[in-house]
Structures are given as structure tokens and as C-alpha cells.
């Protein structure tokens, strides 16, 4: 039985009239292609014409009815039709061909014109055939007239089939429409278009749903590459926008039949489509307007996709099932807050009722854990008594504080019996002690790495849960950064100090050492000159600074401090590093020609600009260190200023780490110092690029900058002392003639034996590529279900085993003991995998802080759970999980908390943080959640410090969950060592191409221009191939391409710069002029009284899309909805050479989420290679498949430079552990 999807009812609200009188609408002049001016009345207002009262048409066509046609009730009695019935209860269904639909005046009309919603009867004529006869000819058909009235039309397919069928309902039967009459075909064009568009959209979303949340760009790509069956040409974006309301209604209808599935209407795609088109999102599935006799359950015609059931270990499964069991009510719909709170209650509530008082020191010398109240606060604290003492005749106890899991980032997901050691302590009066509790330290099992996929009964419980006042701890917790780390052995000592001995608290010792490190200590006295005492070095924050060291200083410090030499001279004015050479200053334009330009402001036109990007750190050389006689604590330093290349030159070819020597000297305070950096004269290093990539914070210089004249001094005039800088450098070089105390030890990137890695949800391999570049791992295995992305991974990792299959199936095989999969590929065994990385695709679930039953079903079968089960089964030494920034806010943090709970339950140390890819040398804003985890006994890595400054508006990496803010360990929050990377830095050497360029291998034509390009083309300091691959771009439809060509090549240009005129397209058609017939109450009228609205909704009335305008240079949908969407700033936007890209997505579309996807100068969208470079992929990295697959591989990837920075930090952690055991 074919299932059916019903067509939507009419939109709600007041209907607008077909036309307005000239007195209602102000005449607006628009320019045609030949230069003539027309008024809007010429196009829209037709005076003296009569409309049909039924179909509202001014010049209707008359229906052609067969001469031998009979009415419906007679036709249905024909033996050919009557003999096919088998059940009196069956709905009678027939086919009808050569059909036409008409009103009571005999006028042809479309059933999709809104006529049915106005309760106007319409009828069908044609030739009726039995349901089994699908022949389109009229032979053997029975002529019919006045079939109806039609009270409903519907869509249906045969289950599993691809052909969409349209049906209509009358009082007596259903009729499936086979072929329209020749004169009626044009009336079915819109109907057929919207039906097929709905099918394409729903199918595309379903195809993506298991792996990711479909974006507008994903769906649009499927649409524009599909043939419109009504016209036999490809669909366009205009078609999708025009029929958005119908598509949305069908999505709602499809959702109404779903069980335990993420609603399609909540996907990114539908949200964006709704915003762009101004369509109204119904709250429930639409139903027909008439009294329908048959109240069948409506089922979607597109086959249901079943979710891949997650393969889980018992531990992971237990975590989620226990958590959700407390949330889900019996009916699977309601949520019980009381039950949830009972499940996670802290047990302190029971302790409050205890009358126990702790009055005297215990006889045992074992440290005691207590619950107490502090001051007047009602919150209870838990702590471990370190010692007791007397204060003002009162007995006091000094306790190290612990935090209950409910108060950590874990929140409600925590184990009610688990507490966490804090790096804090306090004193309390013994009378405030409420209860003594039993606390046990949970040691990691010796065979921890072999416990993956253990049975729950085999996992030893640290406490007896039958006893109320029992707790355990296994981690130290940093409340500011949400870091769970192993506890130092000294913090586990549970022996109480003798009251007669010194009162020692290790937290106090650590705190005192920290405070001491913040006070500078002068070392190696040199001499006294007048009232100044000079020293050779000093120590601050455990770092020693000595004369000759180079240091980072706050940006702009040299303009705030006094120059020590050349006091009477004024220095030359430096370059403004933030100055935009092509600034898009607003100008006066003719609003008749550019009717949307008024929407532009500097604030919303400069997206992707570096105007607010901070400068990198200033750099100086310590020449002297001194204190004055009366102020010996205030250490001063005399600094030689080093100039950055961008401060004195506009030459974009200069390296980012290139400096200029100067004779300028300044005095600074020790508090102005940020950190050390390392500088050498170019003659003292082997190669600038090798020097740069070999370690952090490395710079070089060639010549001197004369700050008085603003000129660069020839290299041969460089002072001899400057040439010696770097002679003392020791970086695997043997300078045996250099004195030991002169050697400048330069930290290099540490090297280790690479770990054996598994990349899950590998994509093309961006994350693992970066980790490999750091030297951390060899990716021996990868899992990717998309065959094109998997092929790309294999191209770049030929020695890796790539599993092209569902990760759940592979894990199931591994857990069952299989050594190989169905393709005879060797499955990694436990003990072989040292490292796992991956970014499990994550649905948005709901906006609630807890799940209902459907969302629970989604989550427990989600790929996040699968990823965690891989971790639990293989138990790698380290793992990295990556996801979108919004992961932290899904379900108000519940998704993140559950993930961290699972990780800590396994015994992993872990932390989470947000990193901005732009801070690591890519010209793109891309914030990502990164979870770092280390096995017990390993050292938990820190998050990498930014290497490049980036736009401040896009650099917020702090996370707020409920009322608590979390940050990473990073200290460089205001600036960074290097300047930002721009679009020019990344793309300017690429050859010029045109729209639709498809040559996958072309010559470079130019040598690298910038530092970034040298890194991308010579990734290992070896000469790259002279052939450039994948510099190809999408072929845009004629109308879209015409718009692109009319977007000015200046910064900040977008759709609001488009002219309103007729244009001849490349396919020979001519565009329409967009008509402004309505008053815009928000924006008023133009300077000459021009109307600014394209729909009644601009006047505050109900929106009606029946007068939508198509084929216009200015897309009708943008001014239609601009007032409520920030004027759609950035759509059809050009990128700026001096700016950065929006987050690179899977499909560059001018009206997509990314918006700014036009090349700064060329009339096309960005190419595959340009997108790859914006992500930091070097030019030797290959992608696979059609162009849309390549874009998707890039857009889904983690930028390799960010992965590389993470890898260096993990290597540091591994080296730190090695040092501890030496």
C-alpha cells in the first residue's frame, strides 16, 4: 500500500489584494537594461481589468473537456473500474491521464494556487484508468468531466521507490495523476518542482542524520545538482527559496510520523532555509481544511532510516543508563525533577541531621575527614584535617579542602560518593565540625590498561555503598580550568602530624612557593654606579632572565615608557599595522540603482576584518638589570628595542619572525616582561625556515632600522655586536669556543618515539595530520564510513589501515575477539593502540538541560557513546576528542558533563577547553572544543599557548556552564608572539581561475610570496612539486554568477552593493527588476520617498509569498527578511585580502551560513585549494572525489596547525613524565 504525505493548508493571516490603486502605492522608478525607466505601476498595476471571482485570473484559459466525457458517478460504474474492488472498506483508487483542473467557470487553475484554501470548488477532467494501468496515452481510458469537487490533494510514492506521485481526493475516490493535458502542463510546473524539492531535502537530511547535522549548504548542493523534472534543467537556489514554505510543511509532516528521532525541522538546514525565505514554521503537522472522511495515520513516503545502534562497553552503558533511568518517566515523555535530584543528591543532606560533635583530637594518628560548616554559610564543606592548633583559647583545625562531585563540572552526572582534592586549605573552629566521614583513596589498578570492556562485577568498588557516610577520591580538581589530574603521592599521605611538631600543610607549602616565585630575586651582583646597583640576572616565576636575553613585552609598551637615549630626537612614524588599505567607507549612492545599500554600516560591513586584532608582543633585548638605592625591590631593565617587519615595511614577503635591530633603548619594570624569546642574526643560523619550525619563540634579523630617519640600514653597516647575536646559541650545534655562561639554550620541539595511533571518524585526516606533524604519533589505523573521505585519508597515509565501515560494527568485531574484519583487514588489538583521536559527529539534541525519552534514545545510540566505548575498550595512554564549540552548551552542558563523567569513571585524567584555530596560524575563525585525557600515571597535557594574535571578537575561549566560568591554562589572552595570518598571506600566490574551473592539476606560475605560503608549499623545508592540485571551484548558475560579477571588489562588499537592474545572463535570459511596492515601517522611505518593502510584512501585516519575485539580481528573499536577520550582512560577501575567512564549511555558497565565500578580486567562489589553505593544509595534501566531496572533507576537518600545537603539548607531558623517573 502506498503511503502518503499530505499537502499543506494555506498560510495563516490576512490575505493581501492582488493589486493596489495608484493612490496607495508610491510610484518608484527603476532602470532597465537599455537605460529606460519604468514605474512599478507599469509592471504590477493593471487598471480596468476584470478578475475571475473563482480563480482570480485576469486572462484565464478555458478547459478542454473530451466530447464523450461523463460525470464521475457514471464513470465509476464502468465495468473496467468496478471489477477491481476486493474489499468494500478499501479506498477506491484509479489513475487519470491527460488531465486538467478547472473552476466552476471552466478556467484552468493550479490546485496549488491557494484556491482550495479559499473553499472554491475545483474539478478534474481527463481519462480514468484502472490503478494497474500506468500508460500515459488516452487509449483504453474512460473520459470524465466534473470529477469532484476535489477536497484534498496528496503526495505518495511506492515504498522504496523513487518516483513521486500526486493524488487528489473526491467524495467517491482517490485519483493518481499520471500525465497532464498539453494545455495544463504549465499549471503543474510549480507543483512538480516543490514536490521533488521536498523529496530532495528530506532525503539529504536523512542521509546525513546519523553522521552529522545537515547544513543548508549540504542540502543546497544536492538541490542544484538535481534535474527539475518540470523543466528538464537543474534546480537553482531560487527554486528552493521560492518553495521553502511547502518544503517546510512537508518536513513537519514527515516529523509527525517519527519516533525517537531527531526532528528534521530542528536541523541547521531547515533553520537557515526558514530564516532566508521568511517561511513560517508550523508548530505541528499541517492538516487539510475540509471535513476529511478518512482519518488515516499519515505516514511519510520516504523510507525510514534506522540508526546504527551504538556498540558500547558495559561501563559506558552503565553510566548512561543509570543517569537516564532517574530522568525518564514511565510514559517516556514526562521528566521528574525530584527523581533526578534524588539520584544525584550529595549525601550531605543526611549528614546535616547528625548530632555528632567533634570536640577533641583523635587518639589515632590517621588523618580524619570531616564535614563542617564554614562561617555563616549554609553550604557544607568537606576536608581532611592536617593538624590542630589553639587560637585565642579556641581549638582550630587546619583542613585541606575537597569538593563533592556535584559541585564540579560534572554536576548532576557525578557519583554521589566521589569527592575531589582541591589545591586549597583553610582553618575552621572545631565546633563547626558536623560529622566525621570515612574517605578512601581509590588507587589505579595495576592492570588498569587491561580492564577495557570489563564486566561490571569485575570492577572493584572503592567503598561499601551500603554505609551512608562513606566517600572516595581519585583525582585532584582544578576548579578554574576543570582539570581532573592524578594525585601526587605526597598528597595521599594520611598520617596526622604530631601536635608538638611543626605544623605542615603541603598546600600551604605550594602556595608559599608560588607567592615566592612571583617576587623577583636578583642574582649575580655586577657593580654600582652612583645610586644604581647592577646585576647580571634575576629570577621571576621560576624563569631566569639575564643580560643578553630577548623577551616579550606588552604591545605598545615603547610608546608608554621613556627612551633612555636620543632623548631630544623624535622617532619616525611607524606603520599602522591595523590600517586597512582598502577601507570600505560608506558613500552616497543613488538608491534607485542601489536600493539596499542603505542597510550597510561600518559595523556590519567589516566582518572578517582585522581592525580589532591586537598587535603581537613587542620584543627587546635585556642590556642591563638594576635597582635604585632606595627601592631595591623594584627591579628595572634597560631594553634594546627590536622592530617587527610589519611595523616598518609593507613588504608582504618578509617572514613573520623577522626583526630589525635598533639602537633605541628603553627602561621597563620587571612586571612588563611576558616571557622569553630567542633571537639570532641570520648568519648564525643554518636556514630561517628550519630555524622557525624547529622550536617555539624563534626570531632572526638581518639589518638595522634607523628609527630617526625611518630607513633600513644596509646590512654591511650593522654593528659588529649585532652580528654576534646568535653566536652563543646552542641548538644541537657544537660551539666549543663559547663560554658556558654565554650559551643561550634554545628550547627545541622535543622528540619521542611516535605513539601508535587510531583515528576514529577520521575524515580526510586533519587532526591526525597535525598530531603526526608534531612527531607525536604514527596513525596506523583510521575509521571512516564515507568512502570518499576514507580514500583521501589513504592517499595521504598510504601505510595506514583505513577501515571504510561503521565504527560500531568494527568495535563489535573487536570486542567479540575477531582478528580481521570482513575485508580481511587486521583489527587493532588491545594493547596495540597508544593513542586515539577523533571528533564524533554530534547532533544538537534539544535546548533543554535534560533529555526526554526520544532524546535519550538518540544519545545512547550516538557516536559520542561509540567513541567513548572505543576509549574504554582499548585504554590508550592518551586521547584527544574534538567537537564543535557549541558542544559545551548542548542541553545546557549535560552532553559535556556526561562525556567527562564517562572519562573520569574509566580512570582517565582529563580537561576540556576551547581553542581558536586562528591563534595557530590559519586565516580563519574556527573555535573547537578539545578534550584532552591521559591514562593513570601519565602527565595530563596542558593546552597550547596561542602562537598568533587573532581578532578579539572571535577569540573568546572561556566557557560558562550555568553560573560558573571555566578557562584553559593559557596565559596569552591579550596578545601572542606572531601577527595574525591574513587571506593574502595564504592565497596571493595562487593562479587566477574563473567560475567553474575544473582542471585539477595546473602550474603554480609564481614562487611563494609570503611566509605562510613558504610553509604551505615547503612543509618539510624541501622543494615542493611545481604542480598545484585542486585549485578548482564550483560552477555557479547563470543568475548567481551574474550577481557575483556585480559585487564590487572592495572590502566589506556583499549583496547590499548589488544594483537593481535588468541583466542579460550567460544562458541568454534577462533578469527582472525587483519591485518595491510596500512601506517599510522599520526603515522608512528613501531620500526621494522611495518605498523599501518587497512584501506586506514590511508594513506590519501578515506575510504572503504569493507575490514573491523571482529571477532578480537582488534576491527577493534577502530584503524580505533582512530586518529580522541583521540585514543579512555578509551574504554574497567578498573576502578581504587583509582579513580572515569565516569558519570554512562543507560547501561554499553565497547565501549559505558562511556567506563571505567570494574571492577578493576574482568573480567566483573560493576554490578547494583556497579552502584547504584556510584550514592550514599544506599543498601536498590530497583530497578525493567530486568537488563537493573535497569541500566537505576540508570543511569537516580539524586544522592541522591546531592539531600540531596540541601534539607538541602532549609530547611535553610525555617528556615531563620521563624526567620524573630519571
From TrEMBL:
Gene Ontology MF annotations? chromatin binding; DNA (cytosine-5-)-methyltransferase activity; DNA binding
| EC numbers | 2.1.1.37
Q: Which PROSITE patterns match?
A: BAH, C5_MTASE_1, C5_MTASE_2, SAM_MT_C5
Superkingdom of the source?
A: Eukaryota
Q: What class of enzyme is it?
A: transferase
| Localisation | Nucleus
The primary site where this protein sits is nucleus
Q: Which GO terms describe its cellular component?
A: nucleus
Location of the region described as Disordered in the Swiss-Prot/TrEMBL record: 1-34
Active site as annotated = 842
Q: InterPro entries given for it?
A: BAH_dom, BAH_sf, C5-Methyltransferase, C5_DNA_meth_AS, C5_MeTfrase, C5_meth_CS, Cytosine_MeTrfase1_RFD, SAM-dependent_MTases_sf
State the UniProt keywords alphabetically: DNA-binding, Methyltransferase, Nucleus, Repeat, S-adenosyl-L-methionine, Transferase
Q: Which family does it belong to?
A: Belongs to the class I-like SAM-binding methyltransferase superfamily. C5-methyltransferase family.
**NCBIfam families from the xrefs?**
dcm (TIGR00675)
What name does the UniProt record give this protein? Cytosine-specific methyltransferase
Origin organism is: Cinara cedri
Amino acid at each position: 500500500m502506498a503511503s502518503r504525505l499530505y499537502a499543506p493548508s494555506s498560510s495563516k493571516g490576512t490575505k493581501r489584494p492582488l493589486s493596489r490603486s495608484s493612490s496607495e502605492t508610491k510610484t518608484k522608478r527603476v532602470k532597465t537594461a537599455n537605460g529606460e525607466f519604468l514605474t512599478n505601476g507599469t509592471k504590477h498595476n493593471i487598471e480596468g481589468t476584470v478578475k475571475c471571482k473563482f480563480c482570480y485570473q485576469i486572462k484565464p484559459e478555458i478547459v478542454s473537456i473530451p466530447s464523450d466525457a461523463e460525470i464521475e458517478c457514471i464513470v465509476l460504474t464502468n465495468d473496467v473500474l468496478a471489477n477491481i474492488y476486493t474489499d468494500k472498506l478499501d479506498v477506491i483508487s484509479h489513475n487519470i491521464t491527460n488531465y486538467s483542473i478547472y473552476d466552476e467557470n471552466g478556467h484552468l487553475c493550479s490546485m496549488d494556487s491557494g484556491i482550495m484554501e479559499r473553499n472554491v470548488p475545483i474539478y478534474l477532467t481527463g481519462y480514468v484508468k484502472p490503478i494497474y494501468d500506468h500508460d500515459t496515452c488516452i487509449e483504453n481510458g474512460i473520459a470524465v468531466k466534473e470529477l469532484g469537487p476535489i477536497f484534498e490533494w496528496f503526495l505518495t510514492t511506492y515504498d522504496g521507490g523513487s518516483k513521486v506521485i500526486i493524488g487528489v481526493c473526491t467524495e467517491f475516490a482517490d485519483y493518481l495523476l499520471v500525465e497532464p493535458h498539453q494545455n495544463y502542463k504549465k499549471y503543474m510546473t510549480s507543483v512538480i518542482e516543490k514536490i521533488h524539492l521536498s523529496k530532495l531535502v528530506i532525503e539529504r537530511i536523512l542521509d546525513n542524520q546519523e553522521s552529522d547535522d545537515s547544513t543548508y549548504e549540504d542540502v543546497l548542493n544536492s538541490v542544484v545538482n538535481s534535474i527539475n523534472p518540470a523543466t528538464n534543467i537543474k534546480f537553482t537556489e531560487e527554486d528552493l527559496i521560492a518553495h521553502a514554505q511547502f518544503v517546510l510543511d512537508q518536513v513537519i509532516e514527515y516529523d509527525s510520523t517519527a519516533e525517537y528521532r531527531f526532528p528534521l525541522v530542528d536541523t541547521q538546514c531547515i533553520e537557515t532555509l526558514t530564516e532566508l525565505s521568511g517561511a513560517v514554521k508550523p508548530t505541528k503537522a499541517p492538516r487539510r481544511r475540509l471535513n476529511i472522511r478518512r482519518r488515516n495515520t499519515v505516514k511519510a513516503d520516504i523510507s525510514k532510516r534506522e540508526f546504527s545502534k551504538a556498540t558500547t562497553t558495559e561501563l559506558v552503558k552503565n553510566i548512561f543508563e543509570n543517569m537516564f533511568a532517574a530522568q525518564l518517566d514511565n510514559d517516556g515523555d514526562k521528566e521528574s525533577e525530584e527523581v533526578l535530584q534524588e539520584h544525584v543528591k550529595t549525601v550531605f543532606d543526611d549528614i546535616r541531621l547528625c548530632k555528632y560533635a567533634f570536640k577533641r583530637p583523635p587518639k589515632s594518628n590517621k588523618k580524619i575527614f570531616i564535614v563542617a560548616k564554614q562561617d555563616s554559610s549554609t553550604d557544607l564543606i568537606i576536608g581532611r584535617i592536617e593538624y590542630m592548633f589553639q587560637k585565642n583559647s579556641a581549638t582550630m583545625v587546619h583542613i585541606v579542602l575537597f569538593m563533592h562531585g556535584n559541585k564540579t563540572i560534572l554536576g548532576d552526572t557525578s557519583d554521589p560518593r566521589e569527592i575531589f582534592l582541591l589545591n586549597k586549605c583553610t582553618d575552621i573552629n572545631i565546633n563547626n565540625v558536623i560529622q566525621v566521614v570515612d574517605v578512601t583513596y581509590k588507587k589505579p589498578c595495576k592492570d588498569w590498561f587491561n580492564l577495557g570492556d570489563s564486566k561490571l562485577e569485575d570492577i572493584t568498588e572503592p567503598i561499601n555503598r551500603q554505609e551512608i557516610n562513606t566517600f572516595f577520591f581519585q583525582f585532584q580538581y582544578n576548579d578554574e580550568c576543570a582539570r581532573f589530574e592524578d594525585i601526587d603521592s605526597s598528597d595521599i599521605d594520611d598520617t596526622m602530624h604530631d601536635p608538638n611538631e611543626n605544623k605542615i600543610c603541603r598546600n600551604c607549602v605550594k602556595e608559599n612557593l608560588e607567592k615566592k616565585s612571583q617576587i623577583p630575586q636578583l642574582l649575580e651582583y655586577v657593580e654600582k654606579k652612583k645610586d644604581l646597583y647592577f646585576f647580571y640576572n634575576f629570577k621571576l616565576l621560576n624563569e631566569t632572565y639575564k643580560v643578553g636575553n630577548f623577551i616579550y613585552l606588552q604591545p605598545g609598551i615603547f610608546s608608554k615608557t621613556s627612551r633612555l637615549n636620543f632623548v631630544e630626537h623624535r622617532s619616525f612614524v611607524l606603520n599602522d599595522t591595523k590600517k586597512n588599505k582598502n577601507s570600505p567607507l560608506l558613500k552616497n549612492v543613488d538608491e534607485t540603482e542601489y536600493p539596499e545599500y542603505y542597510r550597510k554600516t561600518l559595523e556590519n560591513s567589516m566582518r572578517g576584518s582585522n581592525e580589532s586584532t591586537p598587535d603581537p608582543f613587542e620584543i627587546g633585548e635585556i642590556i642591563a638589570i638594576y635597582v635604585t638605592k632606595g627601592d631595591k625591590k623594584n627591579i628595572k631593565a634597560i631594553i634594546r628595542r627590536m622592530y617587527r617587519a610589519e611595523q616598518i615595511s609593507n613588504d608582504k614577503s618578509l617572514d613573520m619572525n623577522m626583526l630589525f635591530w635598533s639602537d633605541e633603548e628603553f627602561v621597563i619594570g620587571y612586571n612588563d616582561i611576558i616571557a622569553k624569546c630567542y633571537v639570532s642574526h641570520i648568519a648564525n643560523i643554518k636556514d630561517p625556515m628550519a630555524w622557525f619550525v624547529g622550536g617555539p619563540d624563534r626570531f632572526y634579523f638581518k639589518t638595522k632600522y634607523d628609527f630617526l630617519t625611518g630607513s633600513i640600514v644596509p646590512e654591511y653597516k650593522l654593528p659588529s655586536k649585532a652580528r654576534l647575536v646568535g653566536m652563543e646559541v646552542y641548538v644541537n650545534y657544537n660551539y666549543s669556543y663559547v663560554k658556558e655562561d654565554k650559551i643561550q639554550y634554545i628550547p627545541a620541539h622535543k622528540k619521542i618515539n611516535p605513539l601508535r595511533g587510531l583515528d576514529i571518524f577520521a575524515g580526510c585526516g586533519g587532526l591526525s595530520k597535525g598530531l603526526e606533524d608534531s612527531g607525536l604519533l604514527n596513525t596506523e589505523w583510521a575509521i571512516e564510513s564515507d568512502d570518499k573521505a576514507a580514500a583521501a585519508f589513504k592517499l595521504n597515509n598510504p601505510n595506514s589501515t583505513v577501515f571504510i565501515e561503521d565504527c560500531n560494527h568494527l568495535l563489535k568485531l573487536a570486542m567479540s575477539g575477531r582478528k580481521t574484519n570482513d575485508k580481511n583487514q587486521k583489527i587493532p588489538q588491545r594493547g596495540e593502540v597508544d593513542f586515539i583521536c577523533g571528533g564524533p559527529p554530534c547532533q544538537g539534541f534539544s535546548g533543554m538541560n535534560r533529555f526526554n525519552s526520544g532524546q535519550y534514545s538518540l544519545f545512547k545510540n550516538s557516536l559520542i557513546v561509540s567513541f567513548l566505548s572505543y576509549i574504554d575498550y582499548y585504554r590508550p595512554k592518551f586521547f584527544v576528542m574534538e567537537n564543535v564549540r557549541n558542544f559545551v552548551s548542548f542541553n545546557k552542558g549535560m552532553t559535556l558533563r556526561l562525556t567527562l563523567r564517562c572519562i573520569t569513571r574509566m580512570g582517565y585524567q582529563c580537561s576540556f577547553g576551547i581553542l581558536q584555530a586562528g591563534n595557530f596560524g590559519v586565516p580563519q575563525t574556527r573555535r573547537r572544543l578539545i578534550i584532552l585525557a591521559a591514562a593513570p600515571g601519565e602527565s595530563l597535557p596542558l593546552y597550547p599557548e596561542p602562537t598568533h594574535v587573532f581578532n578579539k571578537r572571535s577569540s573568546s575561549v572561556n566557557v560558562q556552564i550555568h553560573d560558573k566560568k571555566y578557562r584553559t591554562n593559557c596565559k596569552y589572552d591579550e596578545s601572542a608572539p606572531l601577527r595574525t595570518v591574513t587571506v593574502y598571506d595564504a592565497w596571493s600566490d595562487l593562479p587566477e581561475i574563473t567560475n567553474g574551473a575544473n582542471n585539477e592539476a595546473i602550474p603554480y606560475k609564481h614562487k611563494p610570496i609570503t611566509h605562510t605560503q613558504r610553509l604551505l608549499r615547503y612543509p618539510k623545508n624541501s622543494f615542493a612539486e611545481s604542480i598545484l592540485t585542486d585549485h578548482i571551484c564550483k560552477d555557479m548558475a547563470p543568475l548567481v554568477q551574474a550577481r557575483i560579477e556585480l559585487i564590487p571588489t572592495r572590502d566589506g562588499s556583499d549583496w547590499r552593493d548589488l544594483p537593481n537592474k535588468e541583466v542579460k545572463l550567460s544562458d541568454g535570459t534577462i533578469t527582472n527588476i525587483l519591485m518595491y511596492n510596500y512601506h517599510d515601517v522599520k526603515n522608512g522611505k528613501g531620500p526621494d520617498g522611495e518605498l523599501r518593502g518587497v512584501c506586506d510584512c514590511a508594513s506590519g501585516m501578515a506575510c504572503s509569498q504569493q507575490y514573491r519575485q523571482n529571477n532578480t539580481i537582488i534576491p527577493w528573499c534577502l530584503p524580505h527578511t533582512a530586518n529580522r536577520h541583521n540585514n543579512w550582512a555578509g551574504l554574497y560577501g567578498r573576502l578581504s585580502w587583509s582579513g580572515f575567512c569565516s569558519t570554512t564549511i562543507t560547501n561554499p555558497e553565497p547565501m549559505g551560513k558562511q556567506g563571505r565565500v567570494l574571492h577578493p578580486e576574482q568573480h567566483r567562489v573560493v576554490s578547494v585549494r583556497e579552502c584547504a589553505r584556510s584550514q592550514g593544509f599544506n599543498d601536498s595534501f590530497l583530497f578525493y572525489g567530486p568537488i563537493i566531496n573535497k569541500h566537505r572533507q576540508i570543511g569537516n576537518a580539524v586544522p592541522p596547525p591546531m592539531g600540531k600545537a596540541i601534539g607538541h603539548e602532549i609530547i611535553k607531558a610525555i617528556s615531563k613524565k620521563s624526567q620524573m623517573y630519571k
